[in-house]
Design goal:
Number of domains: 1
Order of helices and strands: EEHEEEEEEH
CATH architecture: Beta Complex
Number of strands: 8
Strand content: 35-45%
Strand order of the largest sheet: 2-1-8-6-7
CATH class: Mainly Beta
Radius of gyration: 14 Å
Shape: globular
Oligomer: single chain
Helix content: 10-25%
Distance between the termini: 45 Å
CATH topology: Ferric Hydroxamate Uptake Protein, Chain A, domain 1
Number of helices: 2
Length: 130
């Protein structure tokens, strides 16, 4: 079976879902939600549209998983996602999943190590403008 694996790092959660042609990460999350709900397991998520950051289109990014929300206040923790170990530079609606992809979501503090992330810069700028 062709699968995509979703991992939620701080929850030690791993969900395998069937891969479909032209499936983006947002759709993969929706499939995982339905699958977990049918199995009687908890899995919630929320997304927000961030649009453009400069010339870069980010689209939708995850802002909550299992009741843990982005925290733009101290300590500045945010949900970021990785594809096969690499920090994604696009939103969840822009990345098309491939067979065998491992999509990992991690809730991380703002650090200089991650300051080059388009995801993080966009979220930080969005929340600071409120």
């Amino acid at each position: 079976m062709n699968i995509v694996t979703l991992k939620i790092k701080d929850k030690s959660k791993e969900i395998e879902i069937p891969w479909r042609t032209d499936m983006n990460i947002q759709e993969a999350l929706e499939i995982a939600y339905d699958q977990e709900k049918k199995a009687g397991r908890q899995f919630d998520f929320a997304v927000q549209y961030f649009g453009y950051f400069g010339q870069d289109y980010l689209g939708y990014l995850v802002v909550m998983i299992d009741k843990i929300y982005d925290n733009p206040n101290e300590p500045n923790d945010y949900w970021l996602f990785y594809v096969n170990g690499n920090l994604a530079q696009v939103g969840i609606d822009s990345y098309m999943a491939n067979v065998g992809d491992v999509i990992e979501f991690d809730f991380l503090p703002l650090t200089s190590f991650l300051s080059d992330s388009s995801q993080l810069k966009t979220k930080k700028n969005f929340y600071s403008s409120k």
